[in-house]
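cron nightly-structures :: item 1 of 1
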Amino acid sequence: MAAGSRHYHRIMKSSFLQTVQLGLKSLLLQKMRASLAALGIFIGTTTVIWLVAMGEGVSQQAQEQILELGARNVIVRTKEPNTGSDRDSNSRVKTYGLLRLDHRRIVENIPNIKRALPMRELRFELRLGNRTADAKLVGCVEDYFELNRLEMARGRWLTPRDRGKKVVVLADNTAKRLFPFENPIGQTIWVGSEFYNVIGQTKPRTASAAIGGSLDSRDYNLDAYIPLETMRHRVGDLVMRRVGGEFQGEQVELSQITVEVYDIDEVDETAQIIESLLKKFHAQEDYAVVVPKELLRQAARTKAMFNVLLVVIAGISLLVGGIGIMNIMLATVTERTREIGIRRALGATRQHIISQFLTETVVLTVSGGLLGVLFGLSVGPIFRGLRAALTMLSPDLLPPIIQTLEPHIAPWSVVLSLLISLGVGVIFGVYPARQAAYMDPIEALRHE
């Protein structure tokens, strides 16, 4: 019984190999036609891998930028409470917002934070002779520079030795308004009613846009930075302004506390702890807790949608290639009608004919798919070569995103493209194969 089973499997294996050999011989007789048929699958497979690689590159670039914006941060902000809940609503001085004590509580009670940076900002007029600059005066600590990705154009940033001293670092536009033709380093300017020594100037920095309603837009080029301790002692927490013929004041200790955690997975939990902690010590809702991590989630959703769109576009390309293969195989069936009749007359079954034509289409699609994968995997060197050539022709020809884009091949796109190409071969090969198999042998023999 076992010997009979082995003999049957040997015969089936031999029959399958003969079918494959016959299919390959038939394709080799029509090399140009077979090449053109495989070309459509080659283009479609390459398109899947290339488009997904580009999409992955753009997505990774966007997510890195979002991480730089502070996806591991929890931003706690001062906000002016509603008039109805303001305990000083009948007073000319409103007292609200974050306290220095809040910063100390966060640092002492939350163990998994990397750092917590306090900050105070006010609109201030800076003056030098008859030149003025309406700037945002920012009282900050030394780590503010690294946190907000600032760079120095000249001079230096604030150091611990500057705490309490009247020194200022000017942002790019602020410096240019006060010193359009001079080096500001070492000069003195009026900040309110006092002289401050300019120790540095930052490079231009792209303004951050308001995203999702949670992050306000911010133009860092119109700032002026002084030590937080200096702001506390020289400017004070109370700021009086003349509004409608009378003076009104606001007493705020801190404008913002930026809490950075070690792991992005700890952001939500840390935000909840901070909110619970502040709620115990604030009778009114004069603060807001913002979690920029939602930007990363939005980027992940955009990436998924983008990949689906790219795969659909590339899938259409494979579909067109499959239709081309079906047309060619139908034409082949018509040309080989007499051959089919002879094979049927010599004892070939319908299953043999279907197997032969399916083998030919699968060989076409798989060979086209494999070549497409090999060419698709070279997207990185080819893209960088084209970019270098275009940059040499004209440096301004390429947009900034293309100049820094690096394609990233997704392994799933390679597997998917091969599966689709194989599926296209089977699906679009079935109809021509059945047309050939169910042909009347006598009529086929009469075909000239």
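cron nightly-structures :: done
The chain has a mean pLDDT of 79.
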